[in-house]
Structure formats: C-alpha cells, structure tokens
UniProtKB/TrEMBL annotation:
Belongs to the ABC transporter superfamily. The keyword Repeat does not apply. Keywords: ATP-binding, Nucleotide-binding, Transport. Residues 3-225 form the ABC transporter domain. GO terms for molecular function: ATP binding. This is Energy-coupling factor ABC transporter ATP-binding protein.
Length: 225
C-alpha cells in the first residue's frame, strides 16, 4: 500500500473541511481519530475518491483519485459508518455476489467466492439470512464480506464498532486484527486501535498529530477533556 497526499485539501461550498496536507501512508494498520467534524471522514473518503481534492492531489497505489477513479475503487474497499446502507439486496449471499457482477464469472464461480469469503470471516451461516434480520455485528461482517469478495488491497472502515454490544464489538475487533489486507480504521473506540502501526489525529480540519497509538491517543484525550 502506498497512499500519497500532495498538498491535498477539501472545501464544501467555500468552507474548508480539510486543510491541504502532504502525507505518505504505507503501514498495514492505520487508525484515524478526532472529534466530530474534525475532517477525519473527509480524509478517509479522499483515499478512494469518494471525495475529490479541491486542491492538490491524492495518489492511491500510484493512481490519481481524480483521473483514475475506477482503478482506485478497485484497490480500496470502503465500509461506511452505517453499513446497513450499503447492503442493497435482501439475501446476504446475493448482496455479496453483487460486487462480482462485472467480472463475468459463472454462477458456480460466484457461489464459491461468496461461500469462501463468508467462511473466511467465520459466518457461513449468514448466506441465506435476510439483511433486515441481522444483528449489528452481523451487518458489519456482511458488509465486510461484500467488500472483501472483490479482493481489495486496502479496506477502510468508518466507526466499525459504533453502537455494537460488547460481544459483537469484540468479534469485529478480532476480525479486523486477523485481516491480511491493509486496513484504515476511523474510530472513537480508542482501544480498538491498540497495536496499530500508526494513528493520525485530526482537529478542526487539520492533521495535528501523527505517530504511535499511545502518544497520539494521549494527546487526543487532552482535546476531548
């Protein structure tokens, strides 16, 4: 993984949401923290082209998010803060298969791929379940399966433990820990980021700390006091 921000910033309706910054990311586990409205979600969405820079540019694995959007989206899977919003078909197995439609695979190949990704996450029993019947943790895992089935190199997760009970939160934490893909996690759940390689702290649209989890989180706690 190699992500480059080259003096890249974002504005909405003339308002600065993210001050221009220059940054390189290559670590396997990266956390992103900050108070609400700090710019952290905008930053994460710039990585896969959901938000295009108003100034500068962003390169993800060598592809410009503004001009090579399709290649960027193929390399980066994104799970939103409310993952239920990205599950569009009633049955879990059909929703996961949706991401493979453009690959011209046979029905048997698709079925095998869906079964494999659910088995990998330890939830093969979800295949025949209906999305509206899932618990919060199961929704998170179903959304993750729909992303992983397309084999992205990078997975971005926005508040993956938000509103989960302790059991489901721990399941999601273990799942993130065991992923072989590069992972970027935006979270207020600070203990989730323990052991990560790097944590970025955003505040009022600026990156103000960048380093080891313990040091960056300690500074964040002074802002939130």
């Amino acid at each position: 993984m190699k992500i480059l921000f080259e003096k890249a910033g974002a504005r909405y309706s003339g308002r600065v949401v993210l001050e221009p910054l220059s940054l390189e990311l290559s670590e396997r586990r990266i956390g992103v923290i900050g108070l609400n409205g700090s710019g952290k979600t905008t930053f994460s969405r710039m990585i896969n082209g959901l938000v295009l820079p108003s100034s500068g540019r962003v390169l993800t694995n060598g592809h410009d998010t503004a001009s090579d959007g399709a290649k960027v989206r193929a390399a980066v899977g994104y799970i939103f803060q409310n993952p239920a919003n990205q599950i569009v078909l009633p049955l879990v197995k059909d929703d996961i298969a949706l991401g493979l439609q453009s690959r011209r695979l046979g029905k048997n190949e698709v079925a095998l791929a869906v079964a494999a990704v659910l088995k990998r996450l330890g939830v093969p029993h979800l295949a025949e379940r209906r999305a509206h019947e899932l618990s919060g943790g199961e929704v998170q895992l179903a959304a993750l399966a729909s992303v992983l089935v397309t084999a992205p190199e990078i997975v971005i997760m926005d508040e993956p433990t938000n509103q989960l009970d302790l059991r489901n939160r721990n399941i999601v934490e273990r799942t993130i820990r065991d992923l072989s893909e590069n992972v970027i996690v935006i979270s207020h759940d600070l203990s989730l980021l323990t052991g990560f390689d790097r944590v970025l702290l955003f505040h009022e649209g600026r990156l103000i700390r960048d380093g080891q989890p313990e040091e960056v989180i300690a500074h964040y706690l002074t802002l939130a006091a």
